Amino acid sequence: MKTKILLSxxxxxxxxxxxGQWSSDSLSQGTIRMAGATLGTKAYFAGGQVPAGSDCVxxxxxxxxxxxTGTWQMEYLTQARTFAVGVTCEDWVLIAGGxxxxxxxxxxxxxxxxSLGIWNIAELSVPRFAISAxxxxxxxxxAGGATIMTNESYDVVDIYNIHTNQWSIQHLSxxxxxxxxxxxGERAFFAGGENAEGKSDxxxxxxFSSxxxxxxxxxLPRTWIGVAAVGNKxxxAGGxxxxxxxxxxxxxxxTETNTWEDTASLSMARGFFGQxxxxxxxxxYFVGGxxxxxxxxxxxxxxxxDDSWSVMTMPNRLTDHTVVAIDTTMLxxxxxxxxxxxxxxxxxxxxxxxxxDCIWDGISANQEEEISVKVYPNPSSGHIKLEIPLNDHQKxxxxxxxxxxxxxVFSQSLNPGDMELNVNLPDGIYLLNIISDDAMHSDLIIIxx
Length: 449
Hints:
Helix content: under 10%
Number of domains: 2
Distance between the termini: 35 Å
Radius of gyration: 22 Å
Shape: globular
Structural class: mainly beta
Strand content: over 45%
Largest sheet: 5 strands, antiparallel
Oligomer: single chain
Number of helices: 1
CATH topology of the largest domain: Neuraminidase
Number of strands: 47
CATH superfamily of the largest domain: Kelch-type beta propeller
CATH architecture of the largest domain: 6 Propeller
């Protein structure tokens, strides 16, 4: 029975009942190289550069878009800067580092904001831009980075505990800026980047549970990689090679087997400056990008459910844009469109790609029967009750919960008579599967703490 249950979970497939829908909104003005983050139903686009005559200047604007109401509000960073990095940890949005004074100076500032409108301020141990930032539970990691004028890179990892308000420092295996980063399960991945010696093939992996580091190696050294975690894979896509050429290579790391799979290729070679790869509904999106005096309207899409690739076209050609995801919606904000390369226009449009009917069919290759299950309350704070007819619950079942990136975030065996689940998950939409060896039930559940 164990083998069949595991196989059933592995063969889980997804169906998008309706195609994604495009809509749009606008920033207050054309802006490039913003930091991006999300908190609840809101997207935060912070800092960047805005046109000023024939040049661009740094801005301190934080434009906040509420996906539910379609409204905007404005907040302000304590320091205007561009190429900062944004990250969310629990109920806080953090905007860190960056560069200002026309790239002459680097910032150590960390603006910390919550949904109640409360601002806090902290400082990184080293001023820098091209930082990679990730978070899990109460920890935020700000890894690597560089300065422009001195061409210096850093191995420092500033770690902030949102609960204790304490900072600590660890180190990468080598200094570099411009890494791609993501979190998969208990591990954070910091991949590629560059330093004074050239592009790097290093992947530093931090384990949140054990507070330990290990390293892996990409198939090609490169910087400004698009990275996304989806299902049981981490994808390292594109980037810039030594000599300034661009790559279409996609390295694929399997987080279950801890091995590298065969590489894949993007539809065209390009780099991803900043936050331009996201995951929704078990699909990874690598959005737009940059080439040599080129921008792109191409989105390469990886489907984790059937291990396939496809290509979408977004409404605008963009580079230096910012991409974030809220549940089943992707927002592509700002950026630069070339009209006479390398000249062009800073964009204020926010393209919104939504999958309102993104649901899973819950049927695997070897499961065609349906278990009758009533799930309530829904939404819930994590205490979930089940009603399962006795004839469907005479043998053990398995309850698995997946997030919208296709990653399993909860699993519990249900012995006969077990009718409750107690989960501790962030607010959001999840897929609950109740599995036996020959049948399955699926429900979308909403967690609201």
